[in-house]
Design a protein that fits this description.
Layout (H helix, E strand, L loop, with lengths): L18 E6 L5 H12 L4 E6 L4 H13 L7 E5 L3 H6 L8 H8 L4 H6 L1 E2 L2 E2 L2 E7 L1 E5 L10 H13 L5 E3 L6 H13 L16 H15 L12 H9 L3 E6 L3 H8 L1 H4 L2 E4 L14 E8 L6 H11 L2 H11 L14 H4 L3 H9 L10 H12 L7 H16 L7
Parallel strand pairs: 1-2, 1-3, 8-9
Antiparallel strand pairs: 3-11, 4-5, 6-11, 7-9, 7-10
Helix pairs in contact: 7-8, 7-16, 8-17, 16-17
């Protein structure tokens, strides 16, 4: 990946006002937030939004290469929540302390906050979070299923009646498949790693997760392209009208309103299906954290800029205009959220007791190993696959082996 030009990475402007370079994923209306923060800064600094590539892997590669070179032209970093521990363990980002830490923690949901911590210290401020829901057709389904078994059976019943029946979700060999499995494992009360993140466990709950994923993939209820589907593929498949259910992120709601309004009128949402009827699901969260580079020439201003970018006013703006759920809990009660986020109460229910992906500096290695081993899901042999994953993920934790 080519680096940005020296001019773009420059640490100071012609006026003498420090430039705080924000490296963040493409977000359509984020420049408005940047402009607001620059106005509030009143020439103490000026944030410059450096737009990273759209692909998460490309974003990470660009930042890792520059930080490894101790590039001082990076100030505030937008990190996928799975990268925070990696960057902290590499000593690339600064710890949040004192008043900065207090402001970042105030009112923030516990799940997103945990993703910003490493070794009991805070290394980032959660900017937005995300969580998947169950989307279902009300003209086909009277009551949304509470469990995977119920959903599979409802789908098979619809199939037998010659009605749209498919359960659409992401099954390609990538992070989305890992998220799917991680949610099932957490909902079954299982563990992939120990609490310290140092040992691959794959306990009985994780084996049960493999059983459920294999059953789902082989039950005849998925779309023919399940093993090639990522998020937007799943959205488009559901909008095609052949499905009764979809497991996906909230972005599908506004997309459906625009792309398939007749279908959207028949679609509702519910909590993601669990494993046991009496136990609510635990759903894997996504989102982005804001960190400050260790090599920033203006760390004080960078912390201030990060706090402004993720304050309550701007999180609400980004939720309404860019569809990214806030990390500050009180915003879910804001009346302005109701029209854009009619599903906000269900999202908040899941966020109050979420699942997190395995918290480890080696997460990228873990994810690569897991997606390769879980694909295709119909070929999973639960006990054998669990044994294989215990070994390969332990090697990943110890930086052994060759990644697939």
């Amino acid at each position: 990946m080519a680096l940005l030009s020296p001019l773009a990475a420059c640490g100071g402007g012609e006026s003498g006002t420090p430039t705080i370079n924000l490296y963040y994923a493409p977000e359509q209306n984020l420049q408005k937030v940047v402009d607001d923060c620059n106005a509030e800064a009143a020439n103490r600094y000026r944030i410059s939004y450096q737009v990273l590539p759209r692909g998460a892997d490309d974003q990470r590669v660009q930042m890792v290469r520059r930080l490894a070179a101790e590039d001082s032209g990076m100030d505030v970093l937008g990190l996928d929540i799975t990268w925070t521990q990696e960057f902290a363990s590499a000593d690339w980002i600064l710890e949040w302390t004192g008043d900065n830490k207090a402001q970042a923690e105030q009112g923030t949901l516990a799940g997103p906050l945990a993703s910003a911590e490493y070794e009991d210290k805070l290394y980032a401020a959660p900017k937005n979070t995300n969580v998947q829901l169950l989307w279902y057709r009300t003209d086909l389904v009277q009551q949304p299923p509470r469990t995977w078994d119920e959903m599979i059976q409802q789908s098979l019943d619809l199939k037998g009646q010659g009605k749209p029946y498919e359960v659409i979700t992401m099954g390609a060999q990538y992070e989305g498949l890992v998220v799917l499995y991680n949610t099932i494992v957490a909902s079954a009360g299982g563990h992939i790693l120990n609490d310290e993140g140092t040992e691959a466990v794959f306990d009985q709950g994780a084996v049960r997760g493999l059983e459920i994923l294999q059953k789902f993939a082989s039950a005849g209820v998925t779309s023919p392209s399940f093993t090639n589907s990522i998020e937007d593929d799943a959205r488009l498949q559901f909008q095609g009208g052949n499905a009764a259910f979809q497991l996906n992120w909230p972005f599908v709601y506004p997309a459906m309103q625009e792309g398939a309004p007749d279908l959207a009128a028949k679609v509702r949402w519910a909590r993601y299906p669990g494993v046991d009827a009496g136990t609510p699901s635990k759903v894997t969260i996504g989102g982005y954290n804001l960190a400050v580079s260790k090599y920033s020439k203006h760390p004080e201003e960078a912390f201030d800029a990060a706090l402004c970018l993720r304050n309550a006013e701007h999180q609400k703006f980004s939720a309404i205009n860019d569809g990214v759920p806030p990390t500050i809990e009180s915003l879910y009660a804001d009346p302005e959220m109701a029209e854009t986020y009619p599903m906000k109460d269900t999202i908040l229910e899941e966020l109050r007791d979420p699942a997190t992906r395995p918290l480890s500096p080696a997460y990228q290695n873990i994810s690569t190993v897991m997606s390769a081993t879980l694909s295709p899901p119909a070929s999973i042999n639960p006990e054998q696959t669990a044994k294989e994953l215990r070994g390969s993920i332990q090697d990943a934790l110890e930086s052994k082996g060759v990644l697939p």
